Amino acid sequence: MHRPVLLLIVAAAFAVGHGSAQTQEREGTVADRVKVGVYFESMCSDSIRFFKNQLYPVWQELRDIIDLEFIPFGKARATPTGTGDYEFQCQHGPVECYGNRVMSCAQNSLPIGTQVEFFQCMMTKPSPAFSGMECSEEVGIAWAPLQECAESVKGAAMLYTNGVRTASLRPWVNFIPTITINGIYDKRRLSVSLRALKSQICASYEGPPHQNCL
């Protein structure tokens, strides 16, 4: 889905994973794990397809060499209200904005493995943005804190921060989902990420040989 991402302010932040020396043959260390950033939105058909066909299957095989981070926002617009809150306009309407807020709250409160399961569940439901309660039950996490967060100024600020990060990418994002590999956003490589993520991660991994990359 092609359109420019618009936001008022831009910035960036990154996180790192962890490794285990005892399983060096299978697991990447902090230094050699492949950093994968997924910029997406909750009601986007291309994002849904990427989760189903690429991200989730690849995570099952290569999770121990991936430092994964989600940035839910997509092609939304965000405007500070001046009262500490924000107004959002999302590509697929207010419903998507709510789904993005739920996912932003989960992104900031759940371990990455739980995020993967929760987001995969949401993205494979008929109405992803409104599947938070159902998927929290399926994954085994509490829904009430996520709901409270999503409906609060705190949740709005989390989503706004994701918008800031999305707008900071260069070149400008015009397709969602957008994938970064080791912090690099390359439009020429994006098509590979969307159809052959596993081979791209294996090619970028510089640690000990991984059995699922052989």
TrEMBL record:
Keyword set, alphabetical order: Glycoprotein, Secreted, Signal
The keyword Glycoprotein appears for this protein: yes
GO cellular component entries: extracellular region
Subcellular localization(s) per the UniProt record: Secreted
Upper taxonomic lineage: Eukaryota, Metazoa, Ecdysozoa, Arthropoda, Crustacea
GO molecular function, one term: oxidoreductase activity, acting on a sulfur group of donors, disulfide as acceptor
Primary location recorded for the protein, binned into one broad class: secreted
Transmembrane region(s): none
A Pfam short name: GILT
InterPro entries registered for this protein in UniProt: Interferon-induced_GILT (IPR004911)
UniProt cross-references to PANTHER family, sorted A to Z: GAMMA-INTERFERON INDUCIBLE LYSOSOMAL THIOL REDUCTASE GILT (PTHR13234), GAMMA-INTERFERON-INDUCIBLE LYSOSOMAL THIOL REDUCTASE (PTHR13234:SF8)
Organism per entry: Penaeus vannamei (Whiteleg shrimp)
Record's signal peptide: 1-21
Highest rank taxon of the organism: Eukaryota
The protein, known as: Gamma-interferon-inducible lysosomal thiol reductase
Family note: Belongs to the GILT family.
